[in-house]
Amino acid sequence: MDAADPLAGKREAFWLPDGVIYLDGNSLGALPRRVMARMRRAVEEEWGNGLVRSWTDAGWYPAPQRAGAAIARLAGAKPEEVIVCDSTSVNLFKALVAALRLQPERKVVVSERGNFPTDLYVNEGVAELMDVELRCAEPGDIETAIRAAGSDLALVQLTHVNYRSGLVHDMARITRLAHQQGALAIWDLSHSTGTLPVELNACGVDFAVGCGYKYLNGGPGAPGFIYVATQHLPSFRQPIQGWHGHASPFAFDHDYTPHPGVDRMLVGTAPQLSLIALEEALAVFDDVDMTQLRAKGSALGECFIRLVDQELAGQGFSLASPREAALRGSQVSLTHPEGYAIMQALIARGVIGDFRAPDVLRFGFAGLYLRYVEVWDAVAVLKEVMSSRAWDRPAFKAWKAVT
Ligand SMILES: Cc1ncc(COP(=O)(O)O)c(C=O)c1O
Fold first, then answer.
1. Atom number of ligand 1 nearest to Cα 221
2. What pLDDT, in 10s, does the model give residues 288-306?
3. Helices (H), 103-236
4. Which of 25, 70, 157, 346 has the largest count of CB atoms under 10 Å?
5. CA pair distance 133, 108, nearest whole angstrom
6. Range of the domain at 387
7. Whose CA is nearest to atom 16 of ligand 1?
8. 116 catalytic, yes or no?
9. What is the pTM of this model?
10. 88 Cα–ligand 1 center, Å
11. Residue 300's domain is classified under what CATH number?
12. What pLDDT digit, counting tens, does each position of 30-64 carry?
C-alpha cells in the first residue's frame, strides 16, 4: 500500500524523529521542514535585523489575510471570506455573537452534548450574555432539536468531526435544515480542515472557525481561523472591537469604523512568529489533492481497525469510532478501562497517540506523513503492550497535566 500511495513523497516534507510512530496529528501536527528554515529567517533576519520595519518590509502585516486565503482553498471558501487570528475559542465567541446579532428576535441555539468542551463553554457563556437558550441535543437527536425549535431557532453550532469519536456530521444536510427554519449554521472545523475536503460555500455555511495546529501543522498554539460567508460580510458585527478590525488602524481614529470585510474579525496584533509558522506550513498543501488525502486518511484508519479486530480480540478494547469510513474523520478511537496506562506504555515505546478521559485512546492518521507500515507496526506494539501487561506499572498510571 505504501508503494502505491500517491502521497508517499509528502512525508519528506516533515521532520519526524527516528523511533517514533506519530498518531497524534489530530492534536498537534508534525513539523514541516520548511517551517524550520522559515522560522530561522523570521527570527534572525526579520525580527533581529529588520526590527519594526518588518511589519511592512517582510510582509508581516497582511499575513492573516494570506494565511486565510490558503485555508479558504482547503475549506471550499473564497479567499476574502477567511482570516487567521486568535484562538478557535475566541473566534467561536466572535462568530456566535455576530450570528445572534443578525437575528436578535430568535432566541434558541442548538448544539450537541458531545461537542468539544470549549465549544460548549463558549456557547454557554454567549447564551448568558445574549440572553438566549442553549439546547444541547444528543448526537442522534440534533435534527429533531432543530425542527422542534422552529422559528425560535437562531443558530446551530456543531463541530464537523467529533474530537472524541471522529464521527463526521453531514454538514450540507444539517446546514440546510437550519436554513429551512430561517436559522444560521456555525461549524467548528478543527478536526476536518487539512484532512477532509470541506465545502463551506457549497454547503451554504454561514460562519466557521477552526484550529491551526492540528492537521494544518501550524505548530503548538498556532492561531485559528474564522470564516464569514460573503452574504454576511456587509452586515455582521463582532463583539471584540479591536484596532486591527478597524477600517484604517493606522489612522488612530478615536471612533471605531469597522473594516468592510472579514478583516473586522481581527482584534489585536497577531502572534507574528506563530502566524509565520502557520503560513509556511500551509504551503505544504499547495499541491495536495484533498480527495486523495481523504482517501488515504480513511484507508489508514481502515487498516488500523482491521488489525485491531484481528490482533487484539478479547483484550477489552471497543471501537468508539464509526466503522464506516465515510462517517469517520482521520482518527480512530478505542475505549479500554485501562486506556490511560495503555497509552502511556505505547508512548514510552514511541507510538504516540493520546487519551481522552475517562477511557478513550485516540489514534490520528494524518495522511501527509504517515505510512501504512506504521499502522501495522503500531498495532504490533499495542499487542505486545497487552500481552506482556507492560501497561500495568505505577509509572504509567501517574496522571500527566496533558493527556
Ligand atoms: C473541536 C475543537 N474546537 C476547539 C479546540 C481548541 O480550541 P483552542 O485552540 O481555542 O484551544 C479543539 C482542540 O482540541 C477542538 O478539538
1. 9
2. 999 999 999 999 999 999 9
3. 117-130, 142-149, 171-180, 200-203
4. 157
5. 5
6. 8-33+289-397
7. 163
8. yes
9. 0.97
10. 6
11. 3.90.1150.10
12. 999 999 999 999 999 999 999 999 999 999 999 99
